[in-house]
Every structure is written in structure tokens, then in C-alpha cells.
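ASSEMBLY PREDICTION REQUEST
Request ID: AP-0331
Submitted by: J.K., bench scientist
Number of chains: two
Total residues: 467
Priority: normal
Notes: Please return the full assembly, not individual chains.
Input sequences:
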Amino acid sequence: MIYFDHAATTFPKPPSVYAEVERCIRSYCGNPGRGSHTLSRAAAEKIYECREEAASLFGLDAPENIVFTVNTTAALNMAIKGLLQQGDHVLISDMEHNSVLRPIDRLAREGRISYDIFPTHGGSGRIPTAEDICRGIGQRIRPETRAVVCAHASNICSASLPIAEIGAFCHTNGLYLVVDGAQSAGILPLDMSRMGIDVLCVPGHKGLYGIQGSGMLLLSPGTVLDTLTEGGNGVRSLDAAMPDFSPERYESGTLPTPAIAGLCEGIRFVKRVGTEAIMTHEQALFRRLRELLTNTQGVKVYAPQFVGSTLLFSVDGMPSDAVGRALDARGFCVRCGFHCSALGHRTLGTPESGAVRASFGYFNRPAEVERFYRALKEILSTAQKADR
Amino acid sequence: MRFGTCTATFESMTLATKAQHALSHAAIRSEVVKLDSSRVGHGCAWGLEFSCAQEGNVRTILGNAHIPVKKYIEGSGMP
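STATUS: Completed
Returned structure:
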């Protein structure tokens, strides 16, 4: 089996991740931050270690500003609903995942906020400049605009946004910048303080190689959100109100300690290998498949001008799910359809059945790309024979 | 030289652990403890026990690291 669905979740994980998850469950999985006994303290210590690892990876000085969530979507909901207030206006890009679009659209439909969409030119065939992107944002700013919420990297193709320039632009204009790092964390350089990111939302189970059930909300110093959930957290238990300090303000209920323990090792793996090495490796795989597919009749590659870890394509005359099923039957895991990104697919102009996404991870090898291509050629040939 | 145990109190276990790591980097031994609730008023709270002989160093290190200590108490914070 060859796995090209790392944009959904990376697989396999580094051996150290599996080992730590099992060690946690078997050896020290008390309820962190609650009791005073040995297992509770051991779990809390592991969770703090993970906060330290994440803070240093993403350019944050304060580990307590790392808030654990179950995934990126949960973190984005906390950021969006905790930051925006009645009457606010917000800007999102035309490549956003539904995890950004849907919470914002819901607030808008309830009459609480309004929003506009700025262009990234992903479907234009050229790579936009940072000036292009910032001009598009600037043209849509209103007096009540409070924030820009956007993905660092697309989840359907290799397009990415110039976050450092957008961050500088936002701060010049008094706007918060909330970044969806679902596809870039662990792969692209992502430094909150250097890039001017106020809130960063990342998954644990994708480019950071943790297991599912782990995600993070990272807050820049001084950023305070309203809470989305309230409950017990092991501090000020006699107070009815939630505390005003991070991370406990945002972490109600028992944390998923085994998932966080695995994430800690996943982040250490990424640091050992280095994000630059990971990015270079995945981009080499992308370039090779792009070269093969752009020269194949009957195959269309979307946004080929960008280089990254994710390649989107469609096959003439075949619905994307039919391509996916045929690939699955030959031992290849890809994702087909619309990838929870109506905006992105609309921007790229994919067919009505969506498209096929092949996304690469650190454990993929160049030979797998060649095998994938041979399998796809076989599928094309079979489909052409059936048409005759 | 003062002997015995002193305790720095914090709002959360996260901050207590952060403080412990800061002291550990300076080779000062300490232990995170859950505080006697009757001494802190709001219910669950956390402390860091260390040798009173190190109190000056502890205050300096935690101050330099901008780790907010609620108060320093002489003796164990535990029940």
C-alpha cells in the first residue's frame, strides 16, 4: 500500500510516537493538572514538555500560550468565535477550508459579523506577489474590520500565502491575523513572532506526526480570547468564572494526554529532521509527479505554478471518485472530491465531481511516485478502451 | 543560612511546572505540589517547594523569567 493522503493525516508515524503513546497509556496516564499524586503530576509534566517543544518550534516564548485542542477545526472555532465581536468585519481568502468558512459564515448568517473574501490568484496560472495579496486585503478593509483569517498553505494544492507580509500589513492596519496552519505546520517555516501571527491553529496529526485527537491553538503574548467552552480545569475550583490566564482559561475538561504525549515526540521528530529537509523532500516528490502528469494527455493539474506537498489533478471523462476507487484497488491512498474546500475548488475551477489530491509525507519515497504514475496510466488506458 | 522548606504559589500547575523548569536550569531542586486549599481561598492551586536557603535565588530566577508568583510562604504548602 502506498499512502499519498498526508494532507488528511500523516501515516505512518515515527516509531518514537507509537512508543510514547503506548508508554503513556501503560505507565503514567493520570489526569493532568488535577490530583497531587504521582501519575497526575507525571501526566502534567509530559503535557508541559509538549508545550515547550511546540512553543520553540513556532517562535513563542511562553509555553503557557500553547492551548491544546482536539484538532485544527476546534482551534479555529475557538479563535474565530473567541475573537470576533458583534458588528465586526473579517476578511478570509478565496482558498479557505470549511473550518474557516463555516464558523465565519454561521456568525454572518446570525447577523453578528460580516465578511469578505480576498483573492489569492491561485486559479490565474501565475504566482501572486505579496503586494498583490495585500492590495486585495487593503481594498476590502472597512472601519469595522477586526481580523484577517487565512490558511498558510492550501489543503487542495500547493498554493501558500505570504504570511509574514500579510502579518506586517495587518499590524500596520490594526488588524488581528489568525492563521490556519493545518497544511504548513512541520513543513513550511512558521514563526509567530517573526511573521506577526496573533493566533495560530495547527493539527497534531498531520505535519507534526502526532496521532489524531491532538491539535493546538497558539496565542501571541497579550492576545486574549473569549471562551467557547467552560468547565473544570484544575485551577480556582471554588470560582464560578473561568480563570483569565492561559492555557487553563481555554482548556476545560480532561486533556487527551496520550495524544499530547505522542505529539510531543512528533514535534521532536520534526525538529530532528528539520522542517527544511522535510519540505525539500516533499517538494521533490511533488515536482516529479507534476512533471509526469502535466505531460500526460487527459490529465489536468491545478495550480501547477506552485511547488509544495500537495498535487491536485483531474482525469478527463472520469469522476474523481472513480479515479480514487481505481487507485485504491491498485493499492494507492489518495483523496477525491472537494476536500472540504468549496472556496478553493471554486477558485481553481475544478470539474463538478471535484478532483484527485495526492499529498506527500516524509516517509514517501521517489519510487512510489513512479509506481503511482504507472498505475494512473493503466487506469487511463483502461478507461480509454472502455470508451471505444 | 535558612533551613527548611519554602513554597512559591502559582495560579496553575502549568505555571508551577514552568517555574520548576526554570529553577532546574539553574540546578535548583524543587517539587510541584498541590496546595492546601484552605491557604489559597479559591480552591485548587499549585505550589513549588524548594529549600529556603535558595529563596533569594528562586525569587531572582522567577522574576527574571517573568513567571508570576502569587506569594512566597515559609513551610510546605501541602496539607
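REVIEWER COMMENTS: The interface with chain A takes residues 11-15, 17-18, 21, 32-34, 37, 41-46, 78 of chain B (CB under 8 Å).
SIGN-OFF: pending second reviewer
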